[in-house]
C-alpha cells in the first residue's frame, strides 16, 4: 500500500469530493489522514472550517467516521515566505514524513500546510516525500482555462514559492491538464446515479454548485482534483517532463527559480481515472446493500 495524505479545500467547489472518495475507496492507498484546507475569502470567512465540515459529511456517508484521521489545516495563507502557519495538519505531514517508505501528499488547493511543514521542520525536504499539487497555469504559453491567476496558486503564492524553492520532490498538475478531466451530468447519472446515498450526494452537490456559480449554461464539470489520486494509484500513468522549479510572481506567472528539478504533468490517463472511480463508487453501493 502507498502511504498518502490528502490536503483538500473540500468545500471550495464540487470536485474535491470525488477525489476524496476515490482515494478512500482505493485498496492500494493507505490514507494516513485528510487535511481540510482554506480557500481564501472569495465566498466565505470560514473556508477551512467549511472544508472540515464537508470532509466529515463524506466520512459519514462512507461509514468511516472516526476511522480516518482528520487534522485541520491553516485557516489563512502564510504571512510571508519565512513564517509558517502552525496547524494540526502541518504537524501530521511532519510526523508521517518520518514513517517507512514514500509518503505522497496530494494538495487539491493551496500549498499552505506543506510550506508550513517545511518551515517548521526543514529536514522534511530530505525525507522520502512526494508533493502532488493541483495548481498553477500552463507552461510554454499553452492556452489554458486560467488566462490569469490560477485559483489554487492565488490562495497562497508565498507557500508555493516556499515549496518549489525547497528542493522537496514536487509533481505539479497545471490548469491546462486538470481542466480536461470533464464529466457530464448524464454520464454521472448513468454511471453512478442511484447506487448509494454517497453517489447521489456527489452528483447533487456538483449540479448545485454549477447552478449557483457558473455564469453560462452548462451540463458538465471538470473533476480537476482527481489527477492527484490517479497519480498516487499509478505514478507512471501520466506523461510528464522535468523542469527547473520556478518562482511565482504576484500575478501567477512563472519566474526563474532555484532550478530544483520538478515533474510537470502534461497528460493523465483520464479513461483509467474516471472508470476506476466510477467502478469503485458502484461497488461501494453494492457492498452497502449486503
UniProtKB/TrEMBL annotation:
<protein>
    <submittedName>
        <fullName>Nucleoside hydrolase</fullName>
    </submittedName>
</protein>
<keyword id="KW-0378">Hydrolase</keyword>
<keyword id="KW-0326">Glycosidase</keyword>
<dbReference type="InterPro" id="IPR001910">
    <property type="entry name" value="Inosine/uridine_hydrolase_dom"/>
</dbReference>
<dbReference type="InterPro" id="IPR036452">
    <property type="entry name" value="Ribo_hydro-like"/>
</dbReference>
<feature type="domain" description="Inosine/uridine-preferring nucleoside hydrolase">
    <location>
        <begin position="4"/>
        <end position="241"/>
    </location>
</feature>
<dbReference type="Pfam" id="PF01156">
    <property type="entry name" value="IU_nuc_hydro"/>
</dbReference>
<dbReference type="InterPro" id="IPR023186">
    <property type="entry name" value="IUNH"/>
</dbReference>
<dbReference type="GO" id="GO:0016787">
    <property type="term" value="F:hydrolase activity"/>
</dbReference>
Amino acid at each position: 500500500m502507498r502511504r498518502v495524505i490528502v490536503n483538500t479545500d473540500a468545500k471550495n467547489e464540487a470536485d474535491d469530493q470525488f477525489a476524496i472518495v476515490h482515494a478512500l475507496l482505493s485498496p492500494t492507498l493507505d490514507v494516513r489522514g485528510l487535511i481540510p484546507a482554506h480557500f481564501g475569502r472569495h465566498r466565505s470567512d470560514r473556508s477551512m472550517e467549511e472544508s472540515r465540515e464537508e470532509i466529515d459529511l463524506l466520512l459519514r456517508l462512507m461509514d468511516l467516521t472516526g476511522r480516518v484521521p482528520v487534522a485541520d489545516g491553516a485557516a489563512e495563507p502564510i504571512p510571508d515566505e519565512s513564517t509558517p502557519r502552525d496547524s494540526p495538519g502541518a504537524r501530521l505531514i511532519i510526523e508521517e514524513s518520518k514513517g517507512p517508505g514514500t509518503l505522497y501528499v496530494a494538495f487539491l488547493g493551496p500549498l499552505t500546510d506543506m510550506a508550513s511543514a517545511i518551515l517548521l521542520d526543514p529536514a522534511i525536504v530530505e525525507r522520502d516525500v512526494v508533493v502532488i499539487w493541483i495548481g498553477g497555469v500552463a507552461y510554454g504559453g499553452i492556452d489554458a482555462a486560467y488566462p490569469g491567476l490560477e485559483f489554487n496558486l492565488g490562495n497562497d503564492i508565498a507557500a508555493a514559492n516556499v515549496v518549489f524553492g525547497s528542493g522537496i520532490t514536487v509533481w505539479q498538475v497545471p490548469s491546462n491538464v486538470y481542466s480536461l478531466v470533464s464529466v457530464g451530468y448524464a454520464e454521472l447519472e448513468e454511471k453512478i446515479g442511484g447506487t448509494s446515498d454517497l453517489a447521489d450526494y456527489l452528483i447533487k452537490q456538483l449540479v448545485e454548485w454549477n447552478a449557483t456559480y457558473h455564469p453560462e449554461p452548462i451540463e458538465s464539470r471538470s473533476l480537476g482534483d482527481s489527477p492527484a489520486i490517479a497519480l498516487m494509484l499509478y505514478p507512471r500513468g501520466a506523461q510528464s517532463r522535468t523542469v527547473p522549479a520556478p518562482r511565482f510572481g504576484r500575478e501567477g506567472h512563472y519566474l526563474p527559480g532555484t532550478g530544483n528539478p520538478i515533474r510537470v504533468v502534461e497528460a493523465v490517463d483520464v479513461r483509467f481515472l474516471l472508470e476506476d472511480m466510477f467502478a469503485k463508487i458502484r461497488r461501494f453501493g453494492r457492498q452497502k446493500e449486503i
